């Protein structure tokens, strides 16, 4: 599953730099997560870093983007290949 940011976001700016896939960006009013880039930090860390640093706990899993751990790992490898890593 990709993660999502709810409207409880206070725009504190701590999640964006923590994302190793550059999946977090400023939306119209709050930060948003691109589900095509979000791997829940699989391949990088044991836990999603944005969730770890969020002071208001507004980053749940997105029920509209269900993925297995294997699917997230495959996405991680595809993103790394696209970066040329």
Question: What would you note in describing this structure?
Answer:
There is one protein chain. A two-stranded antiparallel sheet has the order 1-2. The mean pLDDT is 95. It has one domain (16-83): Alpha-Beta Plaits (2-Layer Sandwich). It is built from 2 helices and 2 strands. Helix content is 24%, strand content 7%. The relative contact order is 0.26. The chain has helices at residues 49-53, 69-83, and strands spanning 24-26, 31-33. The two termini are 23 Å apart.
Write the layout of secondary structure elements.
Layout: E1 24-26, E2 31-33, H1 49-53, H2 69-83
Antiparallel strand pairs: 1-2
What does this entry show, briefly?
The protein is of the alpha+beta class and 85 residues long. Helices cover 24% and strands 7% of the residues.
